Amino acid sequence: MADAPVDTATSVPVAVVGAGPAGLMLAHRLGRVGVETIVLDTRTRHEIETTQRAGILEADVARDLVETGVSDRILREGHEHEGTEIRFGGRAHRIHFKALVGESVWLYPQTDVFIDLADARDRDGGTVHFGVEDTEVLDVTTAAPRVRYTAADGSRHEIRARYVVGADGSRSMCRNLIPEDRRVRYGKEYPFAWFGIMAEAPRSAPELVYAHSDHGFALISQRTETVQRMYFQCDPDESVDAWSDDRIWETLQARVAGEDGFRLAEGPVLEKAVLRFRSFVQEPMRWGSMVLAGDAAHTVPPTGARGLNLALHDVKVLADVLLRALGDGGEAALDDYQPQALQRIWRAQNFSHWLTELLHTPPGASPFDRRRRLGELDNVVGTRAGRTYLSEQYTGWPVSAQG
Ligand code: PHB
Q1: Minimal-distance CA residue to ligand 1 atom 9
Q2: Of all protein residues, whose CA lies closest to atom 4 belonging to ligand 1?
Q3: Each residue of 6-26: pLDDT tens digit?
Q4: 305 Cα nearest atom in ligand 1
Q5: What is the value of pTM for the model shown?
């Protein structure tokens, strides 16, 4: 296989496996300074575009997407949120990010970020092959790694690169190229999942609502004037077929109900899915000439909406490091990537885990656990330090000054 004849062989400085936001943004950043890439994905563009993902961008990430020429649509169609609402004990508590830490976030779905990035690659003449099969990444411990793949038309190709980036998502095959005895995988599973819906209904609130109740967690997010995104905590083995629209609305209403009489605007459920999640990090993030970025190296529960933001932070650091490595720095320049990326990754791991535990009610929670959690929620929303901590973590940390 590794040496079977191919139809074409092409040389580029960087081959990227994975055309999600991490892979495409890396290609975009490198393309802007004249470094050519070839990006591959086993999924079709349509498959990626129609997969629902989270929707919150840190202000820095939104700014980068605008300033590097990927998306000014964010400014027209996205919504700046200066805060969020935390509901528990039947009451609403607004956390005013802007007033507390001077930052806001943008509601702009990941699928739109992907569409903007894919369009920007098309516009700039970048090479992206969707729907490829039988991808093989070879010779990563040498200075001449190769990637082989079968194109959608059945032809077989080889890319000869100086570096390979594994941005191939949470089911990454690239990360498996790091030998088992040389890698560590840190992870945690949760005893709950999210039931996610898309519903045709007007907005129920101007900002996101994160709700904790004795029955479990719920999140009220938005998409457009007429389509809303909502989630509620469910069993990881829950079947979507067991959930009628009526049962979904009854569950969501119970989780956000309160003395203020808050109710969700209901409408037909357009899509429903059970979304499992886990916390995961693999170290190292580099093996020879191959570097991992985004979900391939780490995943977080969706509660703090950190996943996309982290992935785009990885490739910001990585684009600089690769440029230096391709220039005078040589391969040693790659050594700077992991420490810089990991600091933010572990901060985000901690935040995502903390917010998940804070807002969910695990099955079998004892009366003490349930009552203590309310005490913690009260500490978070009822003290300036608590609100500031939440705001600082949720809106992200500055890229260079991490102090
Ligand atoms: C979403 O809009 O889909 C969303 C927002 C915030 C989260 C997770 C998902 O924490």
Answers
A1: 54
A2: 54
A3: 999 999 999 999 999 999 999
A4: 10
A5: 0.97
